[in-house]
Specification:
Helix content: 10-25%
CATH superfamily: 2,3-Dihydroxybiphenyl 1,2-Dioxygenase, domain 1
Oligomer: single chain
CATH architecture: Roll
Order of helices and strands: EHEEEHEHEEE
Number of strands: 8
CATH topology: 2,3-Dihydroxybiphenyl 1,2-Dioxygenase, domain 1
Strand order of the largest sheet: 2-3-4-1-5-8-7-6
Number of helices: 3
Strand content: 35-45%
Shape: globular
Radius of gyration: 15 Å
Structural class: alpha+beta
């Protein structure tokens, strides 16, 4: 069902303030930056192994990331798993009685399609299912 660990999402107050640690100290390469308005975040992807660290900063004070930061402070926000067919995975999870935040995919970074699984179903860890965009030829 899951093909790989896609990324680990880290909530930060400001991406530019967090980047020096990940890029300069840890040596991770910044490969993409984007504002994902549908999720209310500024996002940055840094390569590590076959996946990424995704830094997430709020666009607005009432976004999900802003609420997370207000409750918990900066830190681990979610773990994301790569899939080939997000609709099939969501159907299988729903059929298994897994509590979902999203029953349909929504837009993600770099044209991906994403959906979240409720932390109550995963031992307290917010989990994201990611179907990457088809590579362009």
């Amino acid at each position: 069902m899951l093909s790989a660990l896609d990324h680990v999402g880290v909530a930060v107050e400001e991406i530019d303030a967090a980047l020096p640690f990940y890029r300069d100290v840890l040596g991770l390469e910044l490969v993409h930056r984007e504002t994902v308005a549908a999720q209310g975040v500024h996002a940055a992807l840094l390569d590590v192994g076959g996946g990424h660290v995704e830094l997430l900063a709020p666009i607005e004070a009432d976004s999900g990331i802003a609420r997370f930061l207000a409750r918990q402070g900066a830190g681990l926000h979610h773990v994301a798993y790569r899939v080939e067919d997000i609709e099939a995975v969501l159907r299988a999870l729903a059929a298994a009685g897994v509590r979902l935040i999203d029953d349909r995919p929504r837009p993600g970074i770099r044209g991906s399609r994403v959906a979240f699984v409720h932390p109550s179903a995963t031992g307290g860890v917010l989990s994201e299912i990611v179907q990457p965009a088809e590579p362009s030829n």
